[in-house]
Amino acid sequence: MRSYFVRKIIIHPEYNYLSNDNDIAIMTPSQTVTENDDVSPICVTNTPIPYFFDHECVVTGWGSTDQGSGSTVDKLQQVYIRVLKEELCKSAIPEYNPHTMVCGAVGTRGQDACKGDSGGPFACLNQNGLWDLIGVVSFGLRCGSGELLPGVYTNVYTYSTWIGQTA
Asked: Signal peptide: which range, if any (predicted)?
């Protein structure tokens, strides 16, 4: 695994840490990132989120594997998460905002993004068979606890224009 220094971070100007609205930032590495077997680009989705409802998508991260642990893992973890429809998200998470957020069901063994995964990718195969970044890990409730509460991701489609103008 290779680490990169970050030259610049641009936090969305309307980010609200209390509501988690606009929970997105752009990071610019200080050196060129070379594509190889372990590093590849992903497309910022231009497909509205409803297309992905009920799709199995992938969340990856280096964060902890349960809510009570502060430790991270040595190997990149991944879990398949089903994109949930807005009404299911709203009923489970009162602060859910369907314009700025997308949520996903926990994996088959209660797996989900957890502490240390924030900012990581939530990716789905698009209609052309390519990976689209549809979400960025934002927050969850009691990850890895066995309770089937959905994880919440920033809705990348909502911010695609801002990303294009800012990156």
From this structure: none
**Is residue 143 a contact partner of residue 152, using CB atoms and an 8 Å limit?**
no
| Residue 79 burial class via C-beta count within 10 angstroms: exposed 0-12, middle 13-18, buried 19 and up | buried
Query: CB-based contacts of 76: which residues, under 8 Å, 6+ apart?
Result: 1, 60, 61, 62
Rg (CA), the chain: 15
Separation between Cα atoms, residue 132 and residue 156, nearest integer Å: 10
Q: 103 and 162 in contact (C-beta within 8 Å)? A: no
Q: pLDDT, tens digit, for every residue of 7-20? A: 999 999 999 999 99
List of residues 6+ apart from 20 with CB closer than 8 A: 95, 101, 138, 139, 152
In the structure encoding, which two tokens stand for residue 78, read together?
A: 């991944």
Question: Model-level pTM?
Answer: 0.91
Helix (H, G, I), strand (E, B) or coil at 120: coil
* Cβ atoms of 57 and 123 closer than 8 Å: yes
Its CATH class, for the domain covering 42-162, is: mainly beta
